[in-house]
Amino acid sequence: MAFELPNLPYAYDALEPHIDARTMEIHHTKHHNGYTTKLNGAIEGTDLENKSITDILTGMDMTNGAVRNNGGGYYNHSLFWEVMSPDGGGTPSGDLADAINETFGSFDAFKEQFSAAAGTRFGSGWAWLCVHKGGKLEICSTPNQDNPLMPEVACGGHPILGLDVWEHAYYLNYQNRRPDYVTAFFNVINWDKVAENYEQNK
What is the dihedral of CA 54, 58, 59, 65, to 10 degrees? Predict the structure, then answer.
């Protein structure tokens, strides 16, 4: 069963001024659509064809570049759209807030560490907040379209928040000012969705 490009849960211009409409449209219809199409081509006729994207990634043959790059690209972007919202920003609450405070000391300390992971990732990649079984949180980053579900990549655990730091995610609006884009991201984080991800995977 082929994977399908998911619809965005908001309009392309809904995240402005933090992320501009043109970037969102290109990112979704060109980049994410491209990963989706190429993933379907890479798994067609193989034993991966009827597996979920999570099962594909956790059982990944890391030497299979087509599935690794496009499977990662498909999954990563699907999560990325969901953890943003035009009503986002602010701070988390409930069990997720408690876990962040327990792990990092404070929300501000978490924000600083996550921003550093995103800002210091050389070249293209992602910054992640992951949860391990038992509820422990961890921040890490990955190159290209790798993610922590893949074998022996980064911090392991299950990604509950991801930030795309490929240039195509921000260059039209921010050019080479990645730190400004990372700062803007915090204004659109959908903490309710992140908390849901946390509860489902802790």
Answer: 90
